[in-house]
Design goal:
The structure holds 2 protein chains of 2 kinds. By secondary structure, chain A is an all-alpha fold. Chain A has 12 helices and no strands. The longest helix of chain A has 35 residues. Chain B is mainly α. The radius of gyration of chain B is 21 Å and the shape is globular. The chains are: A mainly alpha, B mainly alpha. At the A-B interface, helix 1, helix 2, helix 8, helix 10 and helix 11 of A face helix 1, helix 2, helix 3, helix 5 and helix 8 of B.
Chain lengths: 245, 190
Amino acid sequence: MRQPELEPLAPELSALLASEREILPEPAEIRERALLRARAVLRATALEPRSKAPLGTLRWLLAAALVLVAANLLGAALRAKRRLLAPAVGAAPTFALQSNPPRKPNQASVATQSELESAPDRAPVAAELGVQPTLQAAAPQRATPVIAPRPISPVEAYALELALLGPARAALAHGDFASALAAIGKHERRFPSGQLAEEREALRVQALSGLGRANDARQTAAAFRARFPGSILLSRMKEPAPSAP
Amino acid sequence: VPPITSVATEHLLAGALAECEVRVRGDCLGAYQREFDYLCRTLRRLGIAPSDIEDVAHEVFLVLHRRWADYDSGRPFRPWLFGIAYRVASAHRKRVRREVLEPWFEIEDLSPQPDQAVATEQARRIVLAALERIPLPRRAVLVMHDLDGAAMHDIAAALGVPLFTAYSRLRKARKELDASLARFRTGAAQ
């Protein structure tokens, strides 16, 4: 597509605008306040539960539910009409009706339910975060469809990782090193190279040390040093004491 | 066996998790930090009063953060940021029903200034005051093109208008800027 041509700016106007082109730095206190507020937002959003379905998904689900109800009502009305008409019209119409392929009960509603079930499913993420998904209660005793797991977003993964490592932190704080190690293992199985792998390994060193497994702790610390040479946790980590003979 | 770490776990992990959070969302925060001065100046050019700049900049950050996944890193960042700032500034101006001219735009003296820095500052104030007389949709195109040096197709994309509309707005905005400056000059001469 040919672009329209622009006339050059008048020299006087161009000179005046040139003075406004330079971006001067804002006062340091304004910048600091703004960044503090921005960081607070980031922290708050990273820690908030992510189990709520987006508004768009809710709208689709509502629409699907309305279709389901309408289809059920229509089916019920048709069945009632058939029952009313059958004695009056005699054999021929009955034959005509029976010649149609047998209709599965609630065919329309089954189809709509399967549509509902094929919607992006947040249940696995919600379940791992300890949040009850709202859809399960709405559709009891339905056939379990085979659904490919939806890949979770980095933010959801981060929330999951936080949720998995939380018990490890709490157990360490209470001196329950065995439980901490179990929680750490759970995180490792789910997110071997997750966003919090570094923090997990630091926790592992502490848990092993707390259990008195000094050699394991030392080896884990060495592996940590090799894997995360620039870690801020490394600078705070003491050399493990030599194990008792 | 003595503990292997020297500080309390809670404090250690709290710091580490904060670092991790910055790593996950760091791009958004880093971009905001890098372009903070540009953003503040843009907001002033779009007519936001200095006293409101901080709050409006934060509103821009909230939108930036929410829409960060939409940003195409192959495209220049500033036009995209400008698009967000423009929408937030428009909404803010509607909200506060600001008058066209405000006291902070008043130009006290248009005579040539002996000191270069003072003269430059005076020129910047004149430009801001003249810009304030141009309706926001056209002003946005002029600021992006003639001050930021953005390409016209980036401007059209950022503002969500057809390319020819962007050109048309720019031509009209330049005429309005010229007329606005002429008004200042006439006022100064009297």
